[in-house]
Amino acid sequence: MSLDWLPREEGVKDHDLWGDEHFSDEAPGIKYELKPIVNPKTGKTIDDLFSAWVILNNPKQYNSYTTGMVKGVIAGFHKASMDRRVVAVVFTAEGDRAFCTGGNTKEYAEYYSLKPTEYALYMDLFNGMVDSILNCKKPVICRVNGMRVAGGQEIGMACDLAIASDLALFGQAGPRHGSAPVGGSSDFLPWMLPMELAMWNCISCELWSAYKAQRLGLITKAVPVIKQDGTWLRNPQVITDAYISDGVIVYGDFKTGDEGKKARTLVKEAATDFELLDREVDGILWTFTNLFPHCLQMSIDSVRQKKKFFWDLGKQAYRHWLATNMNSEAFLGFTAFNTKKITEQDTVDFIKYRQLLAEGKRVDDELFEAVLGKPKK
Q1: 276 and 361, same domain (yes or no)
Q2: Whole-angstrom Cα distance, residue 137 to residue 88?
Q3: 43, 102, 235, 289: which one has the fewest Cβ atoms less than 10 Å from its Cβ?
Q4: How do residues 96-131 score in pLDDT, each as one tens digit?
């Protein structure tokens, strides 16, 4: 029996909410690019199938995201979700120093601090950015081209997989600079690490090497990005061979002393090459391409649900607390960091701050002045 007689509408509909108004090649901004899927065995590209690249483009400020960039990330993930030709999304950034260091501290300090209502509106956008990653109807690979710190760590962990330059650093910054890692880290980390390591990562502001992050299961893989005389050189700053410390076999810690200083100099002078990083990304994209797309996405979404459950549970309360905090510790933390070139210190006087609170002092301009650094003449 033929059903040719049934009415049918030809063509395909456009389900995207936006055009390209949120994308730009100018920094600070978001780039959106389609790149052909590559068969890693033959090197040939596949017709009409792509990966969508959402690229943070603010390298001079370590790819920290401005309000406009947050909008661009949301638009990019939605656009990729609605594009039938896209196999997966690659979330990355310009340059070789940072994937992302979180929100733009200059914008936080000079516009949002002491404006809780404004920051609450901003946090609605931030929550939407995390949601756009967790709700993306394509698998998401975080291509970590450098530091992934603070809010950058949080949007990175919202992704499904992470492939990192072995020069990348991972960690939080909130409790040291006036905030808390409630943009995803306090929800995601207990799923990715043992509880006490999750706790320590959230509160210590300690930075971990890419190899330590891989060893602990925080990322999928770390790959070398320094090539010397045709040979790939693993990050010389990091102890990459297993050793025993206090009876525990570990690796991935940073070298210290003269050896560490020499390694840092080598890295500073070396050129980076992302060939291996991109090869790993292409391999994952090829794996995705050779799977049933709906079965793949169901698998992705079912794992994401564990992260989403706790993120959805807390994100509204986080939004309100973060807004209120802009009147006190966030103002102090972001202002101190933003004025470090003037005062030559990037944090407040924590001891003085705690002493004043212990005395029951009001959180006002007098307290702010007492704990912030002074301009250096």
Answers
A1: no
A2: 9
A3: 43
A4: 999 999 999 999 999 999 999 999 999 999 999 999
